[in-house]
Amino acid sequence: MKLSSGGIGPGRYSVRLGVSPMAKCEICGKGPMHGHNVSHSMRHTKRRWQPNVQKRKVFINGEYKKIYICTRCLRTLTKKSMA
User: CA nearest 49: which of 19, 7, 73?
Assistant: First the structure.
């Protein structure tokens, strides 16, 4: 199976090998979203929006665990731990 070089055109998104674990938040499950770039001439090309996921050590159930967590959940955890 030949993967495209990532250039412009339909071959760029034709092969999906699955979502990597880094692209998904382990707390809320937020993952990549898809849609189109729309140019001035109204031409639609496929694109993906990746969530801002970071690998952090988080204190959960009495122990530290390294998890992939989106910045929104990280902000919420920080806010809740201060209260």
Answer: 19
Q: Which helix (H) or strand (E) holds 72?
A: helix 71-82
| pTM exceeds cut of 0.70 | no
CA 8 to chain centre: 22
Q: Which two tokens stand for residue 77?
A: 């955890």
**Averaged pLDDT for residues 50-60:** 92
Share of the chain above pLDDT 90, in %: 60
For 45, other C-beta atoms within 10 Å of its C-beta total 13
Domains of the chain plus CATH, in order, are 33-83 (2.30.170.40)
